[in-house]
Write a structure and sequence with these properties.
The complex is a heterodimer. Chain A is an alpha/beta fold. Chain A contains 37 helices and 28 strands. Chain B folds into two domains: 6-286, Aldolase class I (TIM Barrel, Alpha-Beta Barrel); 297-403, Dinitrogenase iron-molybdenum cofactor biosynthesis domain (Nucleotidyltransferase, domain 5, 2-Layer Sandwich). Chain B contains eleven helices and 16 strands. The model of chain B is unreliable at 42-48 and 409-422 (pLDDT under 50). Classes of the chains: A alpha/beta, B alpha/beta.
C-alpha cells in the first residue's frame, strides 16, 4: 500500500525545500477520496443563504436530501431557505422528462410561500435527460409575475468552482433590477460572506460603526430586493474570492464597481479589511472611526488572547481548508496564539498561493494541494501536531489519531470571523489542545487542567454589552411564507418533496459495503455524491468513512466512464488494498446507461493474473430507491457475487443474521443474544466495529472489522439465515437467493424490538441450535418486564408519531403497543406499498387509529402531526423542527442523528434495547412535565 | 542542540545543488599567502572566480546583507566565508561574522575555505560555532613543486619564500586538516590544477590528503588573473581536468560540479549572478559598519498604535518606541517630512530617524529603501502586532516569517479547479 498516489506527488511540498512548484488546479484523480464536492454543491452554498427565495432542487431526491442544516447560514428574518425543496424525480419522469413536474412544483411552491424569487437547481440527471429548465422558468415567471432563475449546476459539468460561477450567473440576473435611489454615499456590498453562525452580523456591526452602509450581503442573511439594488454600491468587498470573484468582475465591468479582496479571520486581516474599506472612501471621519474601532477591539481582545497564548505556546497545528487565503489567515492567527503550523493545505489554492504560503511558514512545513484522508493522516502523524484545523470530514481522522480538532470550514457553528471570532477561535483551540482526554489516550497522568482565566471572562462580558441584538424567536421554516406570514395554502402539496424523509440509495449501499471486512465503497458517478454521503455518515457515526468516486466529468457522460472507472479502481487498490470494492451506481451513471457489470468484466480481463479484490456492483438510482433499498440491494449483491461455494459440511450452530440498517450497538447486541442462545452468528453487513471503532491512536485506511469475505463465500454451510425486518422481502432479497441457491433454512422475522419480537428472535435461534437461552438473557427479559411494570402508568395512553425507515417504524410500533403507547402517525419516505400491511402484522389494530403515510416528506409529517397531536415523536433528527413546533419531546433513534451525540451507541434491539428505549420515553415525558410545572420537581 | 542538516550543503552533495543555495559573505580581505596565479582585486562585477568580490563587508554589514538576501531567498542553507582573502588569515573578521550568523540563524550550515596556513590554531573555534564544512586548498605536497606555486607565505610576521615556505605551508596544512577531521568537521580538499606546474602531482596530493582523512576532493582548473605572475599561462584543458578527476576519483570522491564561485556569490551554484544582487552588496558596504546597533529607538508606521499597518510612503506620522522597564513605551510621535520633495524627503527622514535602529512599516518602495539604507537606516517590512515586531528587533532576532507580509495571492488568479475558500 502506498500513502501518496504517484500522480499526486507534485501536489505536495515542504517549506524551505526546493523551488519546485506545487501542482494544483487539477481535477481530482479518479478513485482518490477527495474532500471536494460538485458543481451543484458550489451553486447551492452560494445561493442558499438568500432567505426569502424558494430554492428548488430539480432532480431525484438524493441531492436535496443533504439539507440546509449542514451549512447553517442563518437569517434574521424569513426562514424559507432552510427548507429543502425537491422535484423528487421518479423513474418515469427520468424517462419521459421532468418538465411537467418542475412546472407543477414551482407553481405549488410559489402559491404557498409567496417568495421574492425562485431558484431552480439542475442536478446531473436534468443535464442528461435534457429538460428545458429555462423555458419552464420563463413560463412560470410570466404566469406568476416573479423572477424564476435557472441555475446550471449539473454535478458532472465541472467542479465546485463551476458551481460558484453558475451561482454568480444567477445572481447577475438580479443585480441591476432594483431602484437605487436613496442609497447612502458610503455603500458597499459584502460578497462571499455567508453568515455562517451569524458572522455577517459581526462584520456589519463593525461597518455600521465606521459609517459604512451595507447595500447587500451576497449572500449571508441575503434578501432578493437587496441584491437587486447591489449595483447602487460604490465598492464590492470580496471574501472567499474563489466563489465570488466572477460576480465582482462582472459588476466591475458592467457597473464600474471596483472590488477588494479581504479576509475576516485573525486580528491583522480583519483590521486590514476595515482599513481597506475606509481608505477606499478616503473620508477623514471614517478613517478616525476605523482607527478607534480597531484600537478598541484589539485592546479589549489582546489580554484575553494572552491567557490562551500562555498555555498554547509551542504547540503545533495542521491546517486543511478550502482556500489559501483562509489558510494564510490561520497560519497568522495560530501564530498570535504562540503556535506553529506544521502542515498546511487547501482544496483550491493556485501556485502563487502556495509560493506565498511556503514563504511565511517555518522550514519543514508540509504544504499540500487537494489532499485526501490517507495522506492527511500520515502527515498528522509525521509532524506530531496537537491540533488539526479543517472541516467535519476531517474531524474523525484527527480524533482517531488522538489529536485535537477545530472546525474552520463552512459547517462551523461558532462564529470565527472578526475580532470576537478570533477570541472564539482561541477558545476552541485551547479547549481541544489542552483537554485532558489526550493524556488519558496516551496513558499519561492527568491533572486538573486550568480553564481560561479572568481576562477571558472580562472580554466575554464586554462582548455581551457591545453585541447587537441577535435574532430571533425560532420559527418552523415550513410554516410561513417569505414575508413571515403563515403559508397561504393548507392543502397538502401534491408534487414537491418538502424536506424529505428518505436519503439516497447509494448512501445505503455504501453503509452495507463498509460492513464487509476490507470493504471499500466506490460510487460510479460524479464526485459530489460521494462527498455528500460521507458528510452525512461521518456526522452521524463520528467515524472516518471513505468513499471513492470515479469522478465522472462532462466528457465521460458523453463517451462513457470506462476510463475513469478503471483508473479509479486502480487507485483504490493501490491506496487501500481492499478485500472488496463495492461499486454502487449513481443517478448519473444509471441514466447515461453505464453497464457496470461489463466494466467489471473488462477490468478483470485487463488485469488477468493479478490478485484482485472482490468486485461487487449494485444498481442504486435514487429516482427509484431510497437508502434502505440501496442497503438491501447491496447486501443482496454481496451475497449473489460471493456466496457461491457449495457446502462442505453444514454446521448446526452457525447462522447468518441479515439485520438491516441498525446501529453498531444493536449489531453487537444481536451477536451477543445469538451467542447466549448457543449460536455462532455471522452478521451481514457488520459495521459494528468499522463504524464504531475503539480508539487505537491509529487511522488505518480501512478500519478493522466487518464480515469476513471467507465467511460470506461459505454461507452455504450455515444452518440458517435470519432476515430481520420485513422491508428486505419486498423484492428478491439476499435470503431468497441463499434459499434458492443453497437451500439454507430461512427465517423471515421482524426486528427483535420489544418483548414479543425479541422472544420470537430468541425462539428462532434456539430452534436452530437446539439449545435454550442462557440465564443471563432470561434475566434481561425479566428486567424488561419489571421496568414495564414499574413505568406502565407513565406511558399508558401516550400518543406517538413515528417516522423513518419502514423496518424501524414497524418494529418500534410493535413495542409501543406493548407498553400502552398509541401510535397515531406512522410515516416513511419509502414507497413499497406494504407499509400498512407490515404495521398491521406487527401491531394488530394499529391501522384503525393511526395515520399511515408512505412516501412521506416532513411537510406531510408535520401536517399530519398537527392533526393527530401526538405527545411524543420517535425518529431521526430531521424531525426535530416538527417536534419543536409542536412542543413535544423527540426521542432520537435511527439514521441520521445530527443534532445529538452518541448515535452509534444507541441501543434499541433485544430486551436490553427495549429497556433503554422505554427509559428514554418515560424520562422524556417526565422531563417535559416537570419543565412545564412551576415546582419543577416531582417525586415519583 | 539545534538541528543542522549537514546533507544540505550544495557544494558537498551534488544531489541538492539545484535545490539549496549558498551565500558567500566577503568579510575577510587579508591573506597570508601569495599564489602566483592570484590577484585579489575587489571590484569586478563581471568576473566569476575565487577571490573576487564587488565589495568587502564588515561583519555587521554582512549580517544585514545576509538577512536581506535570506528574506529574498529562503532556500539559502549555507553561509560560507571564502575571502576575498583567506578567512583564517583574517580570523577576527571571520569569527565575528560566524558568531553573528550563528546567533541569527541557529540552523544554517556554516562553511569556510582556507589555504590552511593559519588553520590549526583556529579549529577549536570553528568547532565551537558548529562550522560543519571546511575546504583547504592544497596545491602541492612536494615543497619543490610548492615553491613554484607560492611566491611567498607569511605564517607569522616574517614572509618565507621558496622551498622553505612551501614545506612550512604543507606542514601547517597537515596539522590543521588532522585537527579538522578529529573535530568531526567535513573536509574538502581543493587542488588547483596548473599545467606544467602541478598537473602531474595531483594524484600525490590526493593520496596524501586521503591518508589524513579528507572526505572529498575538488580538482579545479587554475584561472590565471590579470596582472598576476601566471597571467600569460595556459588554462588547463577540459580534457586534462577530466582525466585528472577520473584518476583522482580512484583515490577520493570528486566534486565535479564546482563553479569556482566568487567570494560574494549568492544563490544556486552555477546560476547566473543577478546584477541587482551585486548592487545590493555595494549598498550594504556603504552602510555604517554597525548599522543601527545600540540606537535606543524603533520607529513604527501604524494607524492605531497596535498594528504595523502603514506604508512608509503614506505615513504622515511615525511612532517612536523604546524599551522601558514595563515593556515598550512610546517615546515620541514624529512627523515625516512633507511629500513632493523627491529624494530630499528620504534624506530628511533618515536624519529625523537617525537615533532609530530601524523603522517598521507595512511597505516601502525600492528607491527610498536604498536611500535610507545608505544613510544607515534599515527598513523592516512586516504586518502584525507592533509589539511582536519591537520584540524581535530589540532582542536582535529576525522578524518571524509569518509577519513579513500580507497574503495577496488568493483569487488574483484563482485558477483553481476551485473549490472555494469557504
Amino acid at each position: 500500500m502506498i500513502e501518496i498516489l504517484t500522480e499526486r506527488k507534485n501536489q505536495i511540498g515542504r517549506s524551505g525545500e526546493g523551488t519546485g512548484e506545487i501542482a494544483c488546479s487539477k481535477p481530482s484523480a479518479a478513485g482518490s477520496v477527495s474532500q471536494r464536492a460538485c458543481v451543484f454543491c458550489g451553486s447551492r452554498v452560494v445561493l442558499y443563504p438568500i432567505a426569502d427565495a424558494v430554492h428548488l432542487v430539480h432532480g431525484p431526491i438524493g441531492c436535496a436530501a443533504y439539507t440546509w442544516d449542514i451549512r447553517g447560514s442563518v437569517s434574521s428574518g424569513p426562514q424559507l431557505h432552510r427548507n429543502s425543496f425537491s422535484t423528487d424525480l421518479q423513474e418515469q419522469e427520468v424517462i419521459r422528462g421532468g418538465e411537467k413536474k418542475l412546472y407543477s412544483c414551482l407553481i405549488e411552491l410559489i402559491d404557498r410561500y409567496r417568495p421574492k424569487a425562485a431558484f431552480v437547481y439542475s442536478t446531473c440527471i436534468v443535464g442528461v435527460i435534457g429538460d428545458d429548465v429555462e423555458a419552464v422558468c420563463r413560463k412560470v415567471a410570466a404566469e406568476k409575475g416573479i423572477t424564476v432563475i435557472p441555475v446550471h449546476s449539473e454535478g458532472f459539468k465541472g467542479t465546485k468552482k463551476d458551481g460558484y460561477s453558475a451561482a454568480c450567473d444567477a445572481l447577475l440576473k438580479l443585480v441591476g433590477t432594483g431602484d437605487i435611489k436613496g442609497i447612502p454615499d458610503f455603500g458597499i456590498n459584502l460578497l462571499g460572506e455567508f453568515n455562517l453562525a451569524g458572522e455577517t452580523w459581526i462584520i456589519r456591526k463593525y461597518l455600521e460603526k465606521m459609517g459604512v452602509h451595507v447595500v447587500s450581503a451576497i449572500t449571508g442573511d441575503g434578501r432578493i430586493d437587496d441584491i437587486r439594488r447591489a449595483h447602487g454600491a460604490k465598492l464590492n468587498v470580496v471574501q472567499c474570492s474563489g466563489s465570488m470573484t466572477p460576480l465582482a468582475k462582472k459588476m466591475e465591468s458592467e457597473y464600474g464597481i471596483p472590488f477588494k479582496r479581504v479576509s475576516y479571520f485573525g486580528i491583522e486581516d480583519m483590521s486590514a479589511a476595515l482599513y481597506d474599506i475606509a481608505d477606499f472612501f478616503g473620508d477623514a471621519g471614517m478613517g478616525l472611526r476605523t482607527q478607534e474601532l480597531v484600537k478598541d477591539e484589539i485592546t479589549r481582545l489582546l489580554p484575553a488572547l494572552g491567557e490562551f497564548k500562555e498555555r498554547l505556546k509551542g504547540r503545533r497545528a495542521a491546517i486543511y481548508v478550502g482556500g489559501a487565503f483562509k489558510a494564510f489567515s490561520l497560519v497568522r492567527a495560530l501564530r498570535s496564539l504562540g503556535m506553529r503550523t506544521a502542515v498546511v493545505g487547501s482544496q483550491t489554492g493556485n501556485s502563487e498561493d502556495y509560493r506565498q504560503l511556503k514563504e511565511i511558514c517555518d522550514k519543514g512545513t508540509i504544504i499540500v494541494d487537494d489532499s485526501n484522508p490517507l495522506e492527511l493522516s500520515s502527515f498528522l502523524r509525521e509532524m506530531e501536531v496537537d491540533i488539526f484545523i479543517g472541516g467535519v470530514k476531517e474531524r474523525p481522522i484527527a480524533y482517531k489519531l488522538g489529536i485535537g480538532f477545530c472546525d474552520h470550514n463552512h459547517e462551523r457553528k461558532i462564529p470565527l470571523a472578526g475580532f470576537e471570532g478570533m477570541f472564539n477561535f482561541a477558545r476552541e483551540v485551547h479547549a481541544t489542545v489542552t483537554s485532558p482526554v489526550w493524556n488519558a489516550i496516551r496513558g499519561k497522568e492527568t491533572e486538573c487542567v486550568p480553564m481560561p482565566g479572568p481576562k477571558s471572562s472580562e472580554y466575554l462580558e464586554s462582548l455581551v454589552q457591545k453585541s447587537p441584538e441577535m435574532p430571533k424567536a425560532w420559527r418552523n421554516p415550513l410554516n410561513e411564507a417569505a414575508d413571515g406570514t403563515p403559508e397561504s395554502s393548507t392543502e397538502d402539496s401534491k408534487h414537491t418533496s418538502r424536506n424529505s424523509c428518505k436519503l439516497c440509495a447509494p448512501l445505503g449501499a455504501s453503509l452495507a459495503f463498509r460492513g464487509v471486512e476490507g470493504g471499500m465503497p466506490f460510487l460510479h458517478g460524479s464526485q459530489g455524491c460521494a462527498t455528500y454521503i460521507r458528510r452525512y455518515v461521518i456526522s452521524h457515526f463520528r467515524e472516518p468513512f471513505d468513499i471513492a468516486s470515479s469522478s465522472l466529468a462532462e466528457a465521460d457522460t458523453i463517451f462513457g466512464g470506462t476510463n475513469n472507472f478503471g483508473k479509479g479502481i486502480d487507485n483504490v487498490r493501490m491506496k487501500y488494498d481492499p478485500a472488496l470494492i463495492g461499486i454502487a451506481t449513481t443517478c448519473l451513471s444509471e441514466t447515461i446507461g453505464e453497464n457496470v457489470g461489463m466494466l467489471i468484466k473488462g477490468y478483470i480481463a485487463a488485469h488477468a493474473g493479478e490478485k484482485l479484490p472482490a468486485l461487487v456492483n449494485v444498481s442504486t438510482p435514487s429516482y427509484k430507491d431510497t437508502h434502505a433499498e440501496g442497503f438491501h440491494s447491496a447486501v443482496r449483491a454481496i451475497v449473489d457475487v460471493l456466496a457461491t461455494e457449495p457446502p462442505f459440511m453444514i454446521e448446526k450452530e452457525r447462522l447468518l443474521i441479515l439485520p438491516g440498517i441498525v446501529s453498531p450497538a444493536d449489531l453487537r447486541h444481536l451477536r451477543e443474544m445469538a451467542v447466549l442462545c448457543g449460536a455462532k452468528p455471522t452478521l451481514l453487513p457488520d459495521y459494528s466495529e468499522t463504524l464504531d471503532a475503539p480508539l487505537s491512536g491509529d487511522c488505518a485506511p480501512l478500519s478493522k472489522g466487518g464480515t469476513p469475505i471467507a465467511e460470506i463465500r461459505r454461507i452455504s454451510e450455515l444452518a440458517a439465515v435470519m432476515q430481520l425486518g420485513p422491508s428486505a422481502s419486498s423484492r428478491v432479497s439476499a435470503a431468497d437467493i441463499l434459499e434458492e441457491r443453497h437451500g439454507n433454512r430461512v427465517f423471515r422475522i421482524g426486528w427483535p424490538l420489544g418483548l414479543r419480537a425479541t422472544d420470537e428472535f430468541v425462539k428462532s435461534v434456539e430452534s436452530v441450535t437446539g439449545k435454550s437461552a442462557a440465564d443471563g438473557l432470561k434475566d434481561e427479559r425479566g428486567r424488561l418486564l419489571d421496568a414495564m411494570a414499574d413505568g406502565h402508568k407513565y406511558t399508558f395512553g401516550l400518543k406517538a408519531a413515528i417516522y423513518g425507515e419502514e423496518d424501524l417504524v414497524v418494529a418500534v410500533c410493535g413495542f409501543l403497543v406493548e407498553i400502552g403507547v398509541k401510535p397515531v402517525l406512522c410515516a416513511t419516505g419509502a414507497r413499497s406499498g406494504h407499509f400498512a400491511e407490515w404495521l398491521e402484522n406487527t401491531a394488530s389494530g394499529i391501522s384503525s387509529g393511526a395515520e399511515i403515510i408512505e412516501g412521506a416528506d416532513f411537510a406531510n409529517i408535520a401536517d399530519a402531526a398537527r392533526k393527530a397531536r401526538p405527545d411524543i415523536m420517535i425518529g431521526h433528527s430531521k424531525g426535530s423542527s416538527t417536534a419543536r413546533e409542536l412542543g413535544i419531546p423527540l426521542i432520537r433513534i435511527g439514521f441520521p442523528i445530527h443534532d445529538r451525540f452518541g448515535a452509534p451507541r444507541s441501543l434499541i434491539l433485544g430486551y436490553r434495547g427495549a429497556m433503554e428505549l422505554f427509559d428514554r420515553i418515560v424520562n422524556a415525558v417526565l422531563e417535559k412535565r416537570q419543565a412545564g410545572s412551576e415546582i419543577g420537581y416531582s417525586y415519583l | 542542540m539545534e538541528n543542522i542538516e549537514i546533507k544540505n550543503h550544495p557544494c558537498f552533495n551534488a544531489e541538492v545543488r539545484k535545490k539549496y543555495a549558498r551565500i558567500h559573505l566577503p568579510v575577510a580581505p587579508l591573506c597570508n599567502v601569495q599564489c602566483r596565479f592570484c590577484n585579489r582585486r575587489y571590484d569586478c562585477a563581471n568576473e566569476t572566480r575565487p577571490g573576487v568580490t564587488s565589495a568587502v563587508l564588515s561583519p555587521h554589514q554582512a549580517i544585514a546583507y545576509l538577512k536581506y538576501a535570506h528574506a529574498k531567498n529562503p532556500d539559502i542553507t549555507v553561509v560560507g566565508i571564502a575571502g576575498p582573502g583567506d578567512p583564517m588569515a583574517d580570523a577576527e573578521n571571520t569569527f565575528e561574522t560566524l558568531k553573528l550568523v550563528r546567533r541569527e540563524f541557529p540552523n544554517i550550515l556554516l562553511c569556510v575555505a582556507t589555504n590552511g596556513l593559519a588553520l590549526a590554531q583556529n579549529v577549536e573555534r570553528l568547532a565551537e560555532l558548529r562550522v560543519s564544512h571546511v575546504t583547504v586548498t592544497v596545491n602541492a605536497v612536494d615543497p619543490e613543486i610548492g615553491a613554484k606555486v607560492y611566491a611567498w607565505i607569511r605564517p607569522e610576521k616574517k614572509p618565507l619564500r621558496g622551498v622553505e615556505g612551501a614545506s612550512m605551508i604543507w606542514e601547517r596544512q597537515k596539522e590543521g586538516m588532522k585537527k579538522l577531521v578529529a573535530a568531526g568537521i567535513t573536509l574538502k580538499v581543493n587542488c588547483i590544477v596548473m599545467p606544467e606546474i602541478n598537473d602531474g602531482h595531483v594524484l600525490d596530493v590526493a593520496k596524501a590528503v586521503k591518508e589524513i582523512g579528507a572526505h572529498i576532493m575538488n580538482c579545479t582548473p587554475m584561472i590565471p588573473a590579470k596582472d598576476s605572475e601566471f597571467e600569460s599561462r595556459e588554462q588547463p584543458s577540459a580534457k586534462l581536468i577530466h582525466d585528472i578527476r577520473a584518476a583522482a576519483g580512484e583515490i577520493l570522491p570528486q566534486m565535479a560540479h564546482c563553479a569556482q564561485c566568487r567570494a560574494d556569490a549568492c544563490g544556486l551554484i552555477g546560476a547566473p549572478e543577478r546584477l541587482e544582487d551585486r548592487l545590493t552588496i555595494a549598498d550594504f558596504a556603504k552602510m555604517p559598519l554597525r548599522p543601527g546597533e545600540n540606537r535606543l529607538y524603533v520607529a513604527v508606521g501604524t494607524r492605531e498604535g497596535i498594528l504595523v499597518n502603514q506604508h512608509l510612503g503614506e505615513a504622515e506620522k511615525l511612532l517612536i518606541f523604546k524599551r522601558g522597564e514595563n515593556g515598550f513605551e512610546i517615546e515620541s510621535v514624529r512627523n515625516t517630512p512633507p511629500t513632493g520633495t523627491g529624494v530630499k524627503r528620504w534624506l530628511d527622514l533618515a536624519d529625523i530617524l537617525s537615533d532609530c535602529r530601524t523603522v517598521l512599516v507595512s511597505g516601502i518602495g525600492p528607491s527610498p529603501r536604498k536611500i535610507l539604507l545608505e544613510k544607515g537606516l534599515e527598513v523592516t517590512e512586516m504586518e502584525g502586532l507592533v509589539e511582536e515586531g519591537l520584540k524581535a528587533v530589540f532582542d536582535g532576532r529576525e522578524i518571524p516569517a509569518v509577519l513579513r507580509r500580507r497574503f495577496m495571492g488568493c483569487g488574483a488568479a484563482c485558477s483553481g479547479s476551485g473549490q472555494g475558500c469557504q
